[in-house]
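Try this one yourself first.
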């Protein structure tokens, strides 16, 4: 694709901005900022990956993964604004998920130990884990607030913090995993996923693209479960004080 052809895609952005303007949505500025940021960030990443792929330095790969995990944790933390220690717990859950998932993929030989495969697939795993963390925190805050009376009664009857919050915890974990499960049910029928589509456009065999997509979808399912359960186990205490009292809803 030439740069001229690429520039023509701005027509879609223009259409979006015109619709926003006509409907008085007030999103024109955000769309413009998002467009510029997306282009700059993607080109910057492209140049960086060109260098990384040529150098094949393990330390640089680890640094890139660390940056990706940090940014993902910070983005997901916004859903738990006001909760003490949310960032570090999210970061730990995402890092553990990435380590376990990518480690297993490498160990079983499903992914080659090359930056061309490790970095893109890690990006998808980390991005999926980020979404799961955000969904979990959002749902958990709702569940705790909706079950506040029930939790306080259980605490007053001598239940531990974990026992008192067990049901809201389960519901929040379930809610954070539903998108990944629903995605597997509709993939290939409702939509062709990005990785599969990209490989087909690049000239790969559709069957080869399908095999890679199945690998990604199945690993996403496992990583979603691992992320939500890990975060649940290490984060439920954020809603309670040191002496076991239920805290107020963060603003």
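Now uncover the answer:
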């Amino acid at each position: 694709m030439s740069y001229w052809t690429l520039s023509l895609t701005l027509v879609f952005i223009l259409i979006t901005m015109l619709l926003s303007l006509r409907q008085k949505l007030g999103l024109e500025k955000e769309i413009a900022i998002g467009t510029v940021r997306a282009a700059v960030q993607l080109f910057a990443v492209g140049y960086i990956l060109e260098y990384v792929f040529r150098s094949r330095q393990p330390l640089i790969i680890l640094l890139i993964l660390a940056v990706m995990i940090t940014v993902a944790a910070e983005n997901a933390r916004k859903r738990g604004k006001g909760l003490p220690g949310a960032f570090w717990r999210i970061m730990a859950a995402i890092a553990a998920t990435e380590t376990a998932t990518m480690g297993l993929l490498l160990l079983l030989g499903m992914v080659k130990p090359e930056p061309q495969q490790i970095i893109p697939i890690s990006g998808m795993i980390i991005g999926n884990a980020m979404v799961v963390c955000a969904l979990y925190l959002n749902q958990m805050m709702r569940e705790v607030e909706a079950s506040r009376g029930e939790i306080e009664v259980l605490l007053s009857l001598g239940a531990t913090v974990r026992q008192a919050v067990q049901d809201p915890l389960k519901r929040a974990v379930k809610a954070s995993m539903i998108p990944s499960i629903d995605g597997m049910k509709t993939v290939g029928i409702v939509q062709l996923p990005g990785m599969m589509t990209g490989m087909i456009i690049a000239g790969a065999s559709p069957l080869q693209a399908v095999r890679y997509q199945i690998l990604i979808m199945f690993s996403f399912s496992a990583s979603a479960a691992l992320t939500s359960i890990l975060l649940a186990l290490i984060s439920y205490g954020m809603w309670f004080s040191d002496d076991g009292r239920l805290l107020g809803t963060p603003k």
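Discussion: The mean pLDDT is 85. Residues 58 and 115 are 8 Å apart (CA to CA).
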